[in-house]
Amino acid sequence: MPPVAQPGSRAGLITTLVIFVILFLVAAIFAVSYRLDLEKAQTGEESYRKSLAKLASPEKQEDYGRLSEGERTAVDVLEDRIRTMGALIDPATASDVQKTIGARDAAIKAAAARVQAAGVTLDATTTLPNAVKFLADRVAALNDRAVKAEAERAAALAQRDDATTKHVADIKKKDEEIAAATGRVSEALKKLEETYKPADAKYLASQQLAEKTIGELKEALNAANTATQQKEQDRAAAQKTADEYKKRLAFNRFDVKVAPLRQPDGVLTRVSSSEKAWINLGQGDQMSPGMTFEVYDANEGIPNVLAKADDQLPIGKASVEVINVGAGQSEVQIVRKNPGATLVPGDIIVNIVYDKNVKLSFAVLAGDGFDLNQDGRTNPADADLIKRLITTWGASATDGPSAVTVNTDFLVLGKEPILPKLPDNPNADEQYRLDQAKKKLEAYDTVRQKAIDLHIPILNQNRFLYYVGYYDLARRGQ
User: Fold this and answer.
1) pLDDT tens digits, one per residue of 317-373
2) Which residue of 73, 171, 258, 472 has the lowest C-beta tally within 10 Å?
3) R_g of the chain, CA atoms, integer Å
4) CA separation (Å) from 145 to 132, 150, 309, 353?
5) What's the rounded Cα separation, in Å, for the pair 442 and 447?
6) What 8-state DSSP symbol labels residue 118?
7) Distance CA 97, CA 103 (A)
8) Burial of 195 by CB count in 10 Å (0-12 exposed, 13-18 middle, 19+ buried)?
9) Taking the CB of residue 384, how many other CB atoms lie within 10 A of it?
10) 48, 42 Cβ separation under 8 angstroms
């Protein structure tokens, strides 16, 4: 059982607690009051400092503090001084004085800027009297320099004038001497001319004659040199052409009357009763359908067509046309066969254009044209047909007056141009046709003669058609 509390001790505890609370509250109140007073004092001090800063900077405040005299503050002292200055200055002119002072300061700054631009340093904060004195000294120095420079310029001008005067006098003297010398020379020349005038005339005439003769000799010499050079060039060109011809004739030229027209291209290997046969040329031998060959007897050989006239041309036993090209042989169709002729294996075939080893070169000159179907009229398209046959069968064909070269193997000529007969007084059109015919005949003869000189076989259209196996097909217009 716990002890029973005494009434007196409980009351004392409560009393102590109450007193503690009261003291705490009083201390808190004092603390809050002190805090408020401190903050108020700090705010006042800050406001004072700001107000004081508006009146003067911290550095100035220390300076102004020295103005205090005894019980009087620095402000009091400054106010007394301001009142004293105000008594000395008329209030009505105070604003003008301030303006004058501002204008003075501006003038000093502007003067400082201008003299600084001129290379002279002037402190913008200096007083007006000092600035005026400084500028006056500078102006005086510059004036002295200007006076000295003007004196030097005047001396130089005077010296120049003296030199000019002397130079003019010297020139005048020289001109007089030159004039006198010129007069003496003119007089001497006049006397000399009078003395030698007759001799000069004779000398001039002889000199002109000599110059003329020399000019004519030079022209003749130049003409001779030009002719010699031209002849030398012609000789060199002819020698070059001859060398080319010799090379061409030594290695590639055929015998006109024997070799190219009398060498067979192949033989018949088999003949059927159905007007068909086979030849020993096929794939790999540059064969193509449409090629034609003339067939000759193996024992008689190929006749020399060039040695006979056109009306004595012996045709072959038959003409055949390739229709199928096979391996090692080709099937041909017999398009023409002489009456009573019999084709047998071994008969030889020839086409002047065809050569399985060499691509021959043909030149074609139409002249007055070709008449392949023998109807008595030339056809411009026949020349194109001949060229097409040549190229189709593996050779090359060129046409025109310049077609014949050292590389040409055969020349195929059309009809020789015939000059028209004109009346006694031909008109312009008739004369033009005659002139054109002469040009065509001249070109025709030139090409033919060139082929003769180069030993190139010449074939007319009938000889060509005989040796390609196309004579009968051409007459039928195929």
Assistant:
1) 889 999 999 988 999 999 888 888 889 999 999 887 777 777 888 899 888 888 888
2) 171
3) 69
4) 20, 9, 126, 114
5) 9
6) T
7) 10
8) exposed
9) 15
10) no
